[in-house]
Give the backbone structure.
Amino acid sequence: MIFKFKPIKIRYLIYYLANLISAILLMIESGKDWKAIVLVPLSLLMVTKPLSLIPMLFVSSWSITFVALPGLAAYFYYLVLFFVSIVVALIFNEKAVSFVSKIPAARWALVFAIWIAVNGFFSISGKWYGAVKLSLFIVPLFLVSRFRFKEMDFCRTSIDIVAAFFSVYCFYVMLFAPALYYSDTGTVGSNSLRSNMNPNTASQIVLVLFTIMYSEVFRTKKYWLMLFAALNAGTLMILGSRTAFFTMAIIAIVYLMLVLKTSVWKKMLLFCGCLAAFFVVYSLSSSFERFDRLNISSIEEDQGSGRFYTWEVLLTEVVPYHWVRGVGVDKANYQNLPIYTLDADNLYVDLLTATGIVGFLLFFTYYASNLLHLFRFRKKKRDWDFLIAIFLAQLFEGIGESVYDLPLIWFFGFLSMLAINDLKYAEDSTKQESEPEPALDAPEKWTPPYYLKLNK
């Protein structure tokens, strides 16, 4: 059957509704004064179940401007509540949470966080705030790697529900009520999901929503979910981000190759066909008024919005002189460089410039270790395949966007620690079930006493 639904437990339904109401309040811009009156009671309800706070971490990681309490970023607010809820669960419900051994990727992430924080105090501008803030995004990833939670299916389902809802929400906003974004200089920019949200940031959010819904189609075999993926694809085209649009097409094809069970040459033929079709649409998109930036000629005209020149200057005039530890993680450090820019709009160039070769290697060691764990355990259980798709998408998107200093990328690192422990436990339990138990009536093997062996 195409449409197949399972009955939802009442207590789960309460948490799902609390997640959706809280997420909507975070996303809308109006009513800043009374939001806390609703968000705080709902968050206290979620403290009774740690995993119900994961969707709130997901939504609040979209932008550091989301606020739950006056003066406190929503992401840090829900992080604190999450670890408080773990303590509550350990005291009152020991079966819900258990301790496990550390994950190697978490250790590399911690080393990267320490490197960034220490480096921040020796940055070329002397400003350390940006480095310390980024470290605070990463450290929870290491802490949560020590815990394994039961009912991780509830966690994944709640993320799917939030992703499906905002797939519709974002499409509606961009089609009928787009917000006018104002840049840092005060000039009017493009349309976005919020007036204080850069369209590129909005595109990153929609790309994540697309990746989740697209990968869930193949995991669950519920092909009606493709409607949500299609809505996200339309939203990306309206937003006009070339990097996100290109990444969406690539990750859709790559993930299809990953899950498709056919011969290698058929996969390559399908890959080339899909890629050719994508480039045809991409080249002809200038004929549509809304999508006039999604064509190859626009990249050639503005040199990738000036990115190409920025990369050239940073790689030739900055990186060679700060190649060990970089200039430091903070936008203020970029203002002291030979070119005026706030970042390189490139994950790889930004890591080299800000953290040096040491930070570059630490970051990708963590990233590779994380991906290898997810690939290793997916053979037994494919519940968290969308994390693989998102990690791969961030590598592609990093060509045209700097994503390493955003809470969104570290939230998925945080979630991957929970997923890896869930997959590892599933693999261990499978091994135990497959091992045959000894028969109760089997005769014990007789061994001669020690003195008889001596007489021989």
Residues 1-98 form one domain. The longest strand covers residues 188-192. The longest helix spans residues 347-377. The beta strands are 67-69, 72-73, 97-99, 147-149, 179-182, 188-192.
